[in-house]
Amino acid sequence: MRILTKIAAGGLVGVASLFGSGVAHADTSQQKEKEACQLMDDPAGPESGYAPAEYAFMMLRAKMSAEDARNAMSLGAQDFCPSHVTDLPASWR
Fold it and tell me: Does residue 18 belong to any structural domain of this protein?
């Protein structure tokens, strides 16, 4: 009987971790998108001679893959800072 209890408890923990990870991932994704918008608004980019999208991509790329940086910038511009959609390369819009 103890073995069945342990198996059932382990199964519940496993199911809970599956559902819980989806929520955390969504929050992380939105945080990356908001960070991308903040970087495109950062005056340090133009002061350094970079376009908003160039600066944001360079800063994000230091923390994540190029694909993740592109996705964060593209989705962030659509969801949080639509004024920066035109700053993105046409293939990212």
Answer: no
- Region of 49 (left: φ > 0; alpha: ψ -120 to 50; beta: rest) is left
53 within some domain? yes
pTM recorded for the entire structure: 0.70
* Of 79, 75, 74, 57, residue with least CA distance to 66: 57
Amino acid (1-letter code) at residue 60: L
**Other CB atoms within 10 A of residue 40 CB:** 25
Quick one: tokens of 49? 């001679």
Q: Can you read off the two tokens belonging to residue 63?
A: 């923390």
pLDDT in tens, 23-82: 555 668 899 999 999 999 999 999 999 999 999 999 999 999 999 999 999 999 999 999
Q: Give the number of domains in the chain.
A: 1
- Within-domain flag for 79: yes
Domain that holds residue 32: 28-92
Among candidate residues 76, 68, 80, the one with its CA nearest the CA of residue 93: 76
